[in-house]
């Protein structure tokens, strides 16, 4: 089985690193493509032994499982580009936040009657095989497609299937989650430094504390509230500290953060669905290189506003 | 001493004394004729008489008629009362003070040496036999007296023993805590009124909600966080409401309330 990545950025790099560490696939069976060869992740991928190309079409042709690991607003270009190259064997897995399965299927059915599409939301800790991934299966995906994806993603962390309408909430929680954790860790380290610890030690200890706590919770049947109680001796240091956290609205801040990320994901998706995005909004090199590929043409030429999901020209022909 | 035979006296006939008396008598564990209540005025004595207890205006008579004496007067009256009854207090007596802020040291100082003293902090719902009571033993009170008190007071609600240092915290948490719950219930009702319910109905529903939740919490043996999670269906009404509570910093406010009440209890105890 060959795996391809359209896009050679952070996500592709993290997934490849995780997959190879897990040993689920050999790097020579992985291909990644990007029009931009200057990305630092590109050299990282090359160093890992991944086949790199600037041609998305080549990646599509050489892969069985095709991950779409580009920014959400690039997805439609990519789909137009590789559409003609999609075969029955292909399993398309989109990792783009906010991009619905139905929007991808709508694009691809122009080229193939029953494209097998799945959508996943993962997160950066796949790079250390502690990712959190959910996936939803599309109309034509088969049960074994889900199992295959789950096997792949389970090798780099936790993976489970969900209904597609939950994916935005997952984005808010575990997609963005590592950023919340990094922020918390930075601040915890500041606290340690304020109280006299050297920075490196403070960072190390803070990270270990959160890692350990998370592990305890995952291994335990108990509610986190109960685990919290277990740490708080009466009148002790921890309960005093917790009171500060509560006074600062710690819990509500975290609830707000998850909510904001989820809502923004939905917003971005609906912006994408409804509006045109001008080429200026897209990195120029990317657009130029995509348009240079044989078989790709934008409606009305490269300078005009491009309608992302082709709603006005459902039957537009390709050469 | 068998609980059924012990003679019990109350100095003071206020709500706390009444709540404890009711609990003790309703369970049938103590005979009414073995209970003597003393108060300077007759105002409050009627309800004790209705229960079958003996009443008097003489504190020393109540002491003489009893072995277990509850000191249930306002804290500022304690020194005078103890000076009055001290000559009649023997080594056979067990004195249980219910006065807030009066330490065991103070009690032992004002009573004859070798007196057996315990300090009890009940709370208002003793009146309906749903109290939370914490007691602490003085230097001469042994485990036997502790066990006796626990058995006797069992019908009044939850009875626990602890070191004296916990009593102020108990005051803050549970003594004053009752008022915090009333405040919460009132606010629940106000919320109901805001959303269109008549206030009398909203208040009755709020009260029942607090009661029902309290019973489930007490009887389930599960952590409140777990019970809370169980009520929160994904994307449902409860989680939305809880978010508003967290935004309002309810947890910190409640912790602060218990802290403030406890600190005040400590302060009062030092005076």
From TrEMBL, chain A:
Region (Disordered): 298-319
Family from the record: Belongs to the pyrroline-5-carboxylate reductase family.
Organism, scientific name: Paramormyrops kingsleyae
Metabolic or biological pathway, per its Swiss-Prot or TrEMBL entry: Amino-acid biosynthesis; L-proline biosynthesis; L-proline from L-glutamate 5-semialdehyde: step 1/1
Binding-site residues, NADPH: 56
Its EC number(s): 1.5.1.2
Reaction it catalyzes: L-proline + NADP(+) = (S)-1-pyrroline-5-carboxylate + NADPH + 2 H(+); L-proline + NAD(+) = (S)-1-pyrroline-5-carboxylate + NADH + 2 H(+)
Predominant place of localization: mitochondrion
GO molecular function, one term: pyrroline-5-carboxylate reductase activity
Pyrroline-5-carboxylate reductase dimerisation domain sequence ranges: 164-268
Location(s) in or outside the cell: Mitochondrion
Domain Pyrroline-5-carboxylate reductase catalytic N-terminal: 3-98
Keywords: Acetylation, Amino-acid biosynthesis, Mitochondrion, NADP, Oxidoreductase, Phosphoprotein, Proline biosynthesis
Listed name of the protein: Pyrroline-5-carboxylate reductase
BP GO terms, sorted: cellular response to oxidative stress; L-proline biosynthetic process
Domain of life, source organism: Eukaryota
CC annotations in GO: mitochondrion
